[in-house]
Amino acid sequence: MKRYLTEFDTRILPEETVDTVIIGAGVAGLSTALQLLNLGIKPLIISKKEPNISNSFLAQGGIAAAIGKDDSPELHFIDTVKAGKGLCIEKNVRVLVEEGLERVVDLITLGVPFDKDEAGLPLLTKEAAHSRRRVLHVKDKTGSAIGKTLYHEIKKRNLDIETCFYLEEILVEDNTFKGIIVSNNIEKKLIRSKSLVLATGGYSPLYKRNTSAYKVGGDVLSVAFRAGIILKDLEFIQFHPTALNLPNYPAYLISEAVRGEGAILVNDKGERFVDELKPRDEVARAIFMQYKQGRKVFLDITPLKEKKINFEKRFPSIYKMLEEVGLKDKNLIPVSPAAHYSIGGIESEPNGKTNIQGIFSVGEISCTGIHGANRLASNSLLECIVFGYKTAYSVYLYNMYSKIDRKFSENNIQKQKKILEDKDSVLNNLKKLMWNNVGLIREEKSLNEALKNIQKLEEQLYNYRNVRYLLDLVYLAKAVVLSALNRKESRGTHFRLDFPNESNQYKKHTKIYKNLKINMEVN
């Protein structure tokens, strides 16, 4: 692989030294940071945006936990594994659902203002593929409420967050983490530390229609990949069924909880064509096929009004969005799928450990196998909390026996000369290519076409020196396409028109290594 980003020399960069660096200030990063503070470690948090601008802060529906009287971790486990279509790593799912109940109690005692009934008990809603009402929520802004509570606790401990910095390089020697290079587009600096926690979310912004808080996302995955991190199950990207579909407006998410409360999906003939509470991959494909047949699709909220559910009070954020786009008094909301959640990512254990000593990952950037081939709704915030907590303990133990390395091998310096002026056009073309060729429905012809165009783009960008994040995104897109080509079956969120059925031969996880070597392995 070409080492196209070595435009620095560690000997001349300003330096900073800390025990631990956390990249990312969403719920996963903040959860890890808070527990590290409880353990006596003060991490440095670095984020490219302010903490409230993250995918986890945008999470609407809620956080799943078996807290109901008629529920149990075992039932939660069964639902999660069923949704995962045979690819869940079951021992990790058990950690999620069993310890998840404890961590949600922690959030309640920490003061997260979950909605309650008249008796003061948590109000629970039901979402797709759950057999029980087990989703705790704060109206339709649960992620924001959890994130703000964590952030408030961290600020009370005088922990600051360095914003507007991007991760450019992870320095590794002998399979051991040494430090990072970060940049704010004005200056670069070298940060030496014992350990690194990656918590920067997923790669849904690779697609034209996405629900992400970021225009660019997934670049950190590629930085980690270049450092030797193993990536896993990249072909599995979850498309949310119901994102706003209006010209000239972003694909605003309309929470699955709206369907959980009774909203239905109809086409422009008024026909109901799918069970709205089936797993997300099935609902998203059903909507997609309606559009392929020339139909339009709407989310009909009439049943909520018939149940006398106050939409504005129950879903204030969604109501405000509908008001802004001129739909607040309409019962039919135009929707279509959008790339939403990255099931694949860095191969990680529930305690954050990766294949490189001293590097940990948590949240959507990680792939622990808990989601299998299709994530169960509202398990993502739970993952951030449960595995953030466990990762903090792993970091504490690792740091106990580690020292900060004051020396690095000299890096080869390779500078490019030309400047690329129209970077936005290149990014938009990549997003369109991924949406059209590597989206909800795939086949070998379209995937090979995508691969051919991505390779051309990679060669073109290699001649420029101001395209670090673009090259990283192109390389990540290439890895996604290769993973999708390798899985010659349909399973969960990965649907192949030329291989429409599941195959026991592929009841394995796709692992992709630094040299783009792909293996299918059983965990």
Overall tally of structural domains: 3
Strand order of the largest sheet: 7-3-2-11-18
Relative strand content: 15-25%
Total strands: the figure is 21
Give the second-level CATH assignment, the architecture of the largest domain. 3-Layer(bba) Sandwich
Low-confidence stretches: 1-6
Query: In percent, how helical is the residue content?
Result: 25-40%
- Anisotropy-based shape: globular
Classify the fold: give the CATH topology of the largest domain.
FAD/NAD(P)-binding domain
Count every helix, treating DSSP H or I runs of 4 or more residues as helices.
Answer: 15
Question: In brief, what are we looking at here?
Answer:
This protein has helices at 27-38, 55-58, 73-83, 90-110, 142-156, 219-226, 256-260, 280-292, 302-306, 311-314, 316-324, 379-400, 423-437, 444-461, 468-486, and strands at 15-17, 20-23, 44-47, 63-64, 124-125, 135-136, 161-163, 166-173, 176-183, 188-192, 195-198, 231-232, 237-244, 264-267, 297-300, 332-342, 345-347, 359-361, 366-367, 509-512, 518-521. It is an alpha/beta fold. The chain folds into three domains: 15-235 and 343-400, FAD/NAD(P)-binding domain (3-Layer(bba) Sandwich); 243-338, Succinate dehydrogenase/fumarate reductase flavoprotein, catalytic domain (Flavocytochrome C3, Chain A, domain 1, Alpha-Beta Complex), CATH 3.90.700; 423-521, Methane Monooxygenase Hydroxylase, Chain G, domain 1, CATH 1.20.58.
